[in-house]
Design a protein that fits this description.
heterodimer; A: about 260 residues; mainly alpha; 10 helices; about 0% strand; B: about 325 residues; Rossmann fold; Alpha-Beta Plaits; four-stranded antiparallel β-sheet; about 35% helix; about 25% strand
Chain lengths: ~260, ~325
């Protein structure tokens, strides 16, 4: 194993560009796939339950879940791109093999794939935020910081996905990732209920799950209620994103260079 | 990044010294030594599993060597891969064209991996599409192309960045005769332009046509290398008689052949005789046989002599 640490930004950009070129041809079905589910949740739970649920932390139920659903759209888009998308490029389409015959290194390829997944996550998250006014929700000016948060979290979830891709032997392998990691994160990261209402041991568990601080921070930025603790949460996210990206690159090298 | 004058090339383009690769206990390449000179077409032959593709992948840094030395353009692999790879073009055995992109977009995307500027990419793509008779397919998707067109596009893609070393891993596998002839013509032109080539193929006629020198690998070892015509005349002989006959006749022919210093090899329904000189006795002994054919010895005879007639797949 000889991981190459000198990364060329240009080479990473070329990998992203290739994926973007293909995505552009399939943008409509791709966006429907990425946004259909979170939008339906917003309508069904937000509009449907708002009448029956009292305010949570001073927010209507629709207000409460909208930022979290933007985060979940980000997570699903990034994680699915780096699993099903990347794995198709690794196996069926031999795209990775073709790229590695050129001067692009495995590490540059891995970073390109992670950043591409993060960009798709960012786009989905932003569209979710963009539709909030249609539901009568108007975000605070703090929302301009949200893209950075969504992107960093996107890097984390894309990198986790690429780790799975580097380990996968077939598509069914991703069932573990989706059923045991992504779906529980979607349900228990404080998108649908306030984490503070949970019993203490459960609360501690939920607090260490990686989507929880993202949902927390996104809600703060959407409604301008900045609570202390955010620098710590951001730092942890950055570290997790960097660590997962590094591990994804190492595992992808092990997978592709014999 | 645009190269107006390519970097000076040493006279040896690829050099392997005692190069080996082991996957656990299995020795895929077991200490091979060879050198490919500038402007040469070097044929890399061997049965399936002999270690040809593994050697190519070591040159590309896709497989890490287990031992020995490997120099390309005089620079060591894997340390100098970053400076070596921009100067190498590859036509892989597996078609890995981007099926989501058109013919032109494939060239565009691939050239971008070599950081070719956009204006140069356009000019180069037009030039190569014309050269490989694909200019009317420019905006078609890969799935609409025939096997021959896909192979030609793989060649065009490999040439986008004007490589000094072109690696061709079975460039005409599965193609019809017309498509193969077109590719051979183009490869000859590239060779005349001074491109160094490393060619693997199972088609001996293809190798004989294109290669200046060949190397035969068997089970990870070099069994012979040299100039193909010379190797055929030295190791196989001048002419080959393919004779279909019964056992009794075959025994007689073997005895006559031995007297003429011709090598013989029994087949299921007769005998093959490899002669080094004209032999009147042998010819008259063959005449009564059911069926026989006299032809010049070729690379296929050499290949089978060196690697055996039976299947090798492990």
């Amino acid at each position: 194993m000889r991981p190459s640490l000198s990364l060329s930004v240009k080479n990473i950009l070329r990998v992203i560009q290739r994926n973007a070129r293909v995505w552009w041809k399939y943008k409509v079905p791709s966006l429907v796939g990425n946004l259909g589910q979170p939008l339906l949740f917003l309508v069904a739970f937000g509009l449907g339950l708002s009448q029956q649920i009292e305010t949570i932390a001073g927010l209507t139920y629709l207000q409460f879940i909208a930022p979290g659903l933007a985060c979940s759209a980000m997570m699903y888009s990034a994680a699915f791109e780096a699993t099903y998308g990347s794995y198709t490029r690794l196996s069926a389409q031999s795209t990775f093999e073709g790229i590695l015959m050129t001067p692009i290194t495995v590490e540059e390829l891995a970073m390109g794939e992670v950043l591409w997944g993060a960009l798709k996550g960012l786009l989905s998250g932003l569209i979710m935020i963009g539709v909030m006014p249609l539901f009568g929700l108007w975000p605070s000016p703090w929302v301009i910081c949200l893209p950075l948060l969504l992107f960093v979290a996107g890097v984390l979830f894309a990198a986790l996905g690429l780790i799975m891709t580097a380990l996968a032997t077939n598509y069914d392998f991703f069932n573990y990732f989706v059923s045991l990691i992504i779906t529980p994160l979607f349900l228990f990261s404080g998108i649908f209920f306030a984490v503070d209402t949970l019993p203490i041991p459960t609360r501690a568990l939920v607090r260490v799950m990686p989507l929880t601080p993202v949902v927390d921070l996104a809600r703060m930025l959407c409604y301008g209620t900045i609570a202390p603790g955010w620098p710590g949460q951001i730092t942890v996210l950055f570290l997790l994103a960097a660590g997962a990206s590094w591990l994804a690159a190492v595992l992808l090298r092990r997978r592709l260079i014999k | 990044m645009h190269q107006t004058s390519p970097a000076p090339q040493p006279s040896i383009i690829v050099e392997a010294r005692n190069l080996s690769k082991a996957y656990g206990a299995r020795q895929a390449v077991g200490g091979i030594t060879f050198a490919i000179g500038k402007g040469e077409c070097f044929g890399f032959l061997g049965p399936n599993g002999a270690g040809k593709t593994t050697t190519i992948q070591m040159i590309l840094g896709l497989v890490e060597k287990s031992g020995g030395e490997l120099l390309v353009f005089g620079e060591a692999i894997p340390e100098q891969l970053k400076t070596i790879k921009p100067r190498v073009g590859v036509v892989p055995q597996n078609d890995n064209l981007d099926t989501d992109l058109t013919v032109y977009e494939n060239l565009l995307t691939y050239a971008s991996y070599y950081q070719l500027p956009r204006w140069e990419t356009n000019a180069r793509a037009c030039e190569l599409l014309q050269f490989f008779a694909l200019d009317n397919r420019r905006h078609e998707y890969i799935r609409q192309l025939s096997g021959g067109q896909r192979r030609r596009l793989l060649l065009a893609r490999a040439m986008m960045h004007r490589p000094q070393l072109l690696i061709l891993d079975e460039p005409t596998v599965g193609l019809d005769p017309q498509a193969r002839h077109l590719i051979w013509q183009r490869l000859k032109t590239l060779k005349e332009q001074g491109v160094t080539m490393m060619l693997t193929s199972h088609y001996m006629d293809e190798v004989a046509r294109l290669s200046d020198r060949i190397l035969v690998l068997n089970q990870g070892q070099v069994v012979a290398q040299g100039e193909p015509k010379q190797m055929v005349s030295e190791m196989v002989g001048l002419d080959v008689f393919e004779v279909i006959c019964d056992d009794e006749q075959a025994l007689l022919l073997e005895a006559v052949a031995a007297a003429c210093q011709a090598r013989s090899e029994r087949t299921a329904d007769g005998v093959y005789l490899y002669t080094n000189k004209d032999c009147a006795e042998l010819e008259s002994a063959i005449r009564p046989c059911d069926q026989w054919l006299r032809r010049p010895a070729n690379l296929e005879d050499l290949f089978i002599k060196l690697t055996g007639r039976s299947l090798h797949e492990s």
